[in-house]
Amino acid sequence: MLPKTDWVRTRVMLDRRVEPFDWQRWFGRVAPRVLDLGCGNGLYLVSSALRRSTHDHLGVELVPPALRLASLRAGQRGLSHCKFAWGDATEFVVSRCPSASVDEVHLYHPQPYYDAAKLDRRQLAPHTLLAIWRVLVPGGLFVFQTDNPAYWKWTGEHAPQLFEWSEHAEPWPDAPAGRTLREIRARAQGLAIFRAVARRRELDAGEADARAARMSAPTFDANKFGAGRFRPGKRSARPRDR
After folding, report:
1. What are the residues whose beta carbons fall under 8 Å from the beta carbon of 199, sequence distance 6 or more?
2. Of 32, 57, 116, 228, which cross-links 82 as Cys (Cβ 3.0–4.6 Å)?
3. What percent of the chain has pLDDT over 90?
4. How many domains does the chain have?
């Protein structure tokens, strides 16, 4: 942590009007870009920014306390290339993030929703997968992680339509104990962690649209496969403990 005089501002303000996000305006340069959808308290993104000063990092988070902590962590370390925006991460990737503007998209432990009346709130759905494909540069990476077996099964059945899907069984080398607080807590409870690194398939836009249109909605039962055994308190649409 740096002396307070060396802290930097790391908050990004999204306009109320939905318009394309100007990466160069906020970061002041052109560099490889990392986008974390629902970044929680910023544990992964700050760690990545400390290791990769050559990359610009943006986290989008809807829960204010988590966002404040993430922004503070980055600011205290002088990470001007790591910024955070308050907002809905799905809306950001679907409606605000320009096409072919991001090198990596990360999504860790999206809320599975156990209540059947809330299934339409699930973050990862066909239109979100298509949006992630759209915003990635050719050859860009989509990193996904969950501790919910049903969510993992649905994603593994659908994401390969748009991405070259590769499961990553072992802990991440850069964070053996866990990239997020949710992962750390889940592992402490004995839950399996499901990880994948997927590379964007080279498809024309029409073919990508058609593939997404054929996908089924994420209406799976999140309680299947023992997924409901561990629910650490109430979890919001964008969990704070990511």
Report:
1. 139, 140, 141, 142, 163, 164, 166
2. 57
3. 88
4. 1
Contact residues for 73 (Cβ-Cβ < 8 A; gap 6+)? 41, 42, 43, 46
In a domain, 15, yes or no: no
Tell me the pTM: 0.91
Find all residues with CB under 8 Å of 227, minimum gap 6, and list them: 112, 148, 149, 150, 151
Q: Do the domain assignments include residue 122?
A: yes
Return d(Cα 183, Cα 174) in angstroms, integer: 14
**HSE-up (13 A, CA, CB side) for residue 7:** 13
Residue 170 one-letter amino acid? E
Q: Is residue 10 part of a domain?
A: no
CATH number for the domain that contains residue 58? 3.40.50.150
144 bridge partner residues: 107, 196
Query: pLDDT digits over 130-146, tens only?
Result: 999 999 999 999 999 99
Which amino acid does the sequence have at 110?
A: P
